[in-house]
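Obj: model holo form, ligand = adenosine-5'-diphosphate.
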Amino acid sequence: MHVLSVSSLKGGVGKTTVALGLASAAFSRGLRTLVIDLDTQCDATTGLGAIGEFSETSADVLQSPRHNIVHRAIVTSSWGKNQSGVIDVMVGSPRSQGHDNPYPTLGEVWRLETALTKVERDYDLVIIDTPPSINGLTRTAWVASDRVLIVSEPSLFSVVATDRTIHAVEELRKGLTPRLGVLGILINRLKPSAPENEFRVNEIRERYGDLVIPTQIEERSSIQQATGSARAIHSWPGQSSQEIAAQFDEVLDFALESFTTQPVRRPTRAERKAQRVTRIMRGQTLDTVLALEAEEGEELSPEEALGL
Ligand SMILES: Nc1ncnc2c1ncn2[C@@H]1O[C@H](COP(=O)(O)OP(=O)(O)O)[C@@H](O)[C@H]1O
Ligand SMILES: [Mg+2]
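Output (holo structure tokens):
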């Protein structure tokens, strides 16, 4: 099972659209796919056609990631059936807001990861739609993830937001979860055949180099139509939606390749120490722990790390 968070510190750039587009690509090629809706707006839940009253939601899972609760918070999308694919959603809730603490504790940020161990064998790909912040909810999502996909507009307008996101992912990777990495920056809403396209993409490439994903997602009204009708872009009729679907297929390929071809990094000495510290500091806030990690670097002996 691979886990991908879709994030950006800006709202309205297309996180949910990208999360759903990738889910559509995964489902249509037969992958068992779970979308986790951590955004309090619950747009991913709506886009997957899961509408109604739910006994449990992702807010309950974050409260208590027990087996029964996790399973009750996951429902089947109304996107339909295909031969082997599965498309489920862990439904969102406005009540998740209560978990969006700017200073989450270490115990809190591990809860989704704990929850995912209960469904480890049920899915090939998990896609997490996150809120536009780096508070508790987003960091909880990242701790449960292998990769973070950063969504950006086709302009350098949100460069501060992108820089902060990359920095925050890196900080978590070093201090807490070595398997985490940035998948790349996905440029969304590129205007088809606009003359300034190439210029804009190059401008972003100049700053972020290979972090920019080779495929861009174009701006097309068919995306809005499919989302608004709670349908998968891959099953929405018309030439335009098929072109967009092909773009999401390419981004999915890029993600799957990153999961399987990037060498599994053996944790460094500092990272192994971080994991030990993690276990003994569960009640501390995440920021306290990350600050200590950054300060202490390699110098701490195992005994010191354990507080002996
Ligand atoms: N590539 C695109 N083409 C057309 N409309 C888009 C595209 N990406 C996003 N949108 C629209 O922009 C709005 C914001 O997108 P959304 O995915 O909800 O952003 P976020 O989740 O980051 O807040 C939505 O109305 C969505 O339909
Ligand atoms: Mg959204």
